[in-house]
Amino acid sequence: MFKIPAAWMRGGTSKCWVFEWDNLQVPGKSVDEVLLRLFGSPDNRQIDGVGGGTSTTSKAVILSRSLSDEADVDYTFAQVAIDEQKVDWGSNCGNCSAVVAPYAIQRGWVTPGQETTTVRTLNTNTDQLILQKVPTPDGELQDPGTQMIPGVPFPGMAVGLGFLDPAGRTTGKLFPTGEPLDKVTFDGREVPATLIDAGAPLIILDAESIGLTGKETAADIDSQAALLVHLDDVRRDAAVRMGLAATRAEAARAIPKLALVGKASQNDEADLNVRMLSMGRLHPALAITGSVALTMAAQHEGTVVRDLLTTDPSSGLVMRTPAGIVQTWAEIRDGVPVVGTIRSARRIADAELLLPESW
Which phi-psi region, left, alpha or beta, contains residue 332 (left: φ > 0; alpha: ψ -120 to 50)? Predict the structure, then answer.
């Protein structure tokens, strides 16, 4: 058996296995092969591995001290497929990003301040610099902390995330097609869509245009097999149009994600209702990279998001998700746009994962 050190951490509304790059180097095996076997994929239950059997619990974060002068920590995100023999490296997970600063401080890679500690993290999937700010009173992490977020019943360490200049990190353009509004084909008819790359590539549909409200539950969405097929068709077509894949068949499962948005109810504190799909199913809360894209979309005339708003989105968005309210902030810092939010994180366990020598 190979013994692989790892930490099990919750970041936002996701659970992530956290590794250091050197510990995943196994003679004769690729990192993809190692992760798939550790997680127990392909198997929809991941019964012989550490995967949780859902898209939000089959994730890996791989860390190292940064090679860049601009960052303290380099981190790479891996979405480990559940019932496929595939690891998707094409995007970042904003929720899992929240584990990076606490891990780096606990590991001694960053010296904590007496009140707060800022950790400069570089996501290598998207070349995105994220400033993470963590309370460290008297130079100590607050573990488990007191920060509550929608979708998590217990508190964790507060982690502020600020995405610096997030536009076009994957495709090179905020709007990869060159337009804030496009037409896509849903179930044989054309509907308006915004294809945007900020934080991560995302396609945004007005829920009403496809016969929904934006208030649907997971049961409402996931039980409709035909709806899921039509939405994935839209997503795969968008992947080609955004330059993320050469053909529909080659489109990754993890990107682009797809968001359904709808007008908030009258007197609701939210600006918008949001339902996001991840890996073919409704996300239980909201992908944080998706919230960055939605916030950027709101700030540009002609997008699906902007056309639904009755409020000024220049300082951020308040979005109602299946788990509750998620709020983002937006500002210009030294001439550079920054979009951020607050997540929580908690270290659940330190582990030594046992990897068979052959499989």
Answer: beta
- Tokens 């490296």 belong to 89
- Which residues on neighbouring strands pair with residue 342, listed in sequence order? 160
Asked if residue 325 lies in contact with residue 269, where contact means CB atoms within 8 angstroms, the answer is yes
Tokens for 313?
């989105």
Q: How far apart are CA 218 and CA 275, in angstroms?
A: 9
Alpha-carbon Rg for the chain, nearest whole angstrom, is 20
3-state secondary structure of 347: strand
How confident is the chain (359 residues) per 10-residue block, as mean pLDDT? 97 97 97 98 98 96 94 98 95 96 97 97 96 97 93 97 97 98 97 97 98 95 96 97 96 94 94 94 94 98 97 96 96 94 97 94
Distance, CA of 58 to chain centre: 13
How far is CA 337 from each of CA 266, 290, 343, rounded to the nearest angstrom? 30, 16, 20
In whole angstroms, give the CA distance from residue 352 to residue 354. 6
pTM of this prediction?
Answer: 0.93
Backbone φ, ψ for residue 7 (5° rounding): -120, 140
Task: For residue 217, give the 3-state DSSP assignment.
Answer: coil
Nearest to 93 by CA among 61, 119, 65: 61
- Both tokens of 244, joined, read 């993320």
